[in-house]
Amino acid sequence: MPTPSSPPERVAAIIVNPVKVDRKALHAAVRRAERAAGWSSSIWFETSVEDPGSGAARTALDRGVDVVVVAGGDGTLRAVAQELRGSAVPLALVPAGTGNLLARNLGLPLDNLALALRTAFAGSDRLIDVGVVEAERVDGTRDTHAFLVMAGLGLDAQMAANTNELLKARVGWLAYVDPIMRALRDNNSVRVRYQVDGRATRTATVNTVLIGNCGTLTAGITLLPDAAIDDGVLDIVAFRPKGLFGWAQIWVKIFWENGVLRHSTVGRKIISMSREVRALRYLKGTEVVMRLEHPEEFELDGDAFGEAIALKAHVEHLALRVRVPRG
């Protein structure tokens, strides 16, 4: 029985995606981190196809844990964050996916298990925004989901829907080559009626729309250069290429301007003197509503969520606590 002066026992929930993680190695590392931080033994959960992490997170909250540690990819993080948002319980990351986009945007280590767990048990808390999407299905039903990195439709969503998960686990981003080539070959486009922050409704024909809570992809690619994960704003980009020349303009903008020029004073001056390309349209807002000409696949943080005829996205400002290294 603890004395009145004894600090309360602290306990973590560990939510593991067994497809992504070597559980035996993780268990040993967690035990070392627990002892070093003076925490009690953690509660363990495994995700499954039926429960990608939401149910485990709800159970963890009900049991009064002090931190929820997610060992998995962005999809697992998204499912857990959906339940943790608005609570006082922080989310800690042990990156183990293909993209690890949230970890990249937070500047967290990707390949240092000991540091990730030290951060989970003894790090600081940082508040970040959470994106929320309400999808209207073809039959008129609606469902709501959170996202941490990006929501997308068009080419981006087709990649998520058509990528083989087993192949993705084995070869990483190479698994996207085939769905990308098929989507580009089909040259799909969709007509969208959209409204940002209640302003006038506009219409556009697009290949892809991405709504970002943060802007960096793998390999340091900056898709949304002005995006910040705690600014209370969603950054939106629409791809509107016309043929190969349009795709070339997009490539130059994303890989050359955002990826190279933006990182130097001279480069930023060059960007300021260049004109925006018609193949890309950037927008910002706290809420965006889109109604589509026909049903389209959409994705959240790299996971396919089926078809929708309309999407409404908004930002919940500073709704999620995330563990980051001290200092």
TrEMBL record:
SMART domains: DAGKc. The keyword Hydrolase does not apply. The lineage of its organism: Bacteria, Bacillati, Actinomycetota, Actinomycetes, Micrococcales. Its cofactor is Mg(2+). Pfam families: DAGK_cat, YegS_C. Residues 7-137 form the DAGKc domain. Belongs to the diacylglycerol/lipid kinase family. This is Diacylglycerol kinase.
